[in-house]
Amino acid sequence: MEVANERKSEGNECFRAGKWNEALVAYRSGLNCLPKRLPKPETGVPDAKDAKLREETVPTADVASLASEKPVEPEPVIDIASPAVSEEDKECGRLRSVLNANIGACHVKLGEHKEAVAACSQALLDDPTYVKALERRALSNDALDSWTSLTAVQEDYNTLLKLSTSASQQADIRRKLQSIKPRLETAQKKETGEMVDKLKGLGNSIGNFGLSTDNFKFEPNGQGGYSVNFSR
After folding, report:
1. Does the global pTM surpass 0.85?
2. Which among 114, 145, 192, 200 would be 20 to 30 A from 221, CA to CA?
3. pLDDT tens by residue, 172-205
4. Would you state the pLDDT for residue 174?
């Protein structure tokens, strides 16, 4: 852990100097010095969230693979705040969270928003209330400007609203939430239309299904894809 902290300090110096790539290398090096995240013990009983995540999804990039695409499930991890976790593991978890959030900050500076979202999501696995990671993930998802990313922005802002104790910060978050709504509606209509058009094209290639946008209901699943319900 001492080496990991040294690499973090090196990364911070590079970051302050505007050397984003060098900072990225240092933070990743520090991360590699730490043990892997603790796995969540298997209970054998799936919860409601697990069941929901197993719904069929449609990835934005390839709607035609509807029948074969599987949902992306989050990495099962144990809460480091649990009494069952040793102080050393908790300290490792906190440092791992900071390093991942710092990696996210580098990606933000480099304009690599998908990578920033992924890094901040890793940080939040270790510390779900890490404000900087939530803010950076929201910023990058906002820049991605898709239906699923804007839905994630909305969720992160709602989490930040619960965590904030400052009236001025809460007011600012509420303004941001308000500004997201029309963009979210526009993105939803646009992407739903595009996906239905692709599904119609797929249907036409194997027979006329007489599909309509009313037959499909799409919901972002929070994993970069969509849950789809079909009804006649």
Report:
1. no
2. 200
3. 999 999 999 999 999 888 888 777 777 666 655 5
4. 96
What one-character-per-residue DSSP string does the chain give?
Answer: -HHHHHHHHHHHHHHHTT-HHHHHHHHHHHHHTSPPPPBPPP-S---HHHHHHTS-EEETT-GGGTTT--PPPPPPB--TTSTTS-HHHHHHHHHHHHHHHHHHHHHHHTT-HHHHHHHHHHHHHH-TT-HHHHHHHHHHHHHH--HHHHHHHHHHHHHHHHH---HHHHHHHHHHHHHHHHHHHHHHHHHHHHHHHHHHHHHHHH------GGGEEEEE-SSSEEEEEE--
Name the band, by pLDDT with cuts 50, 70 and 90, for residue 229: low
Residue type (1 letter), 183:
R
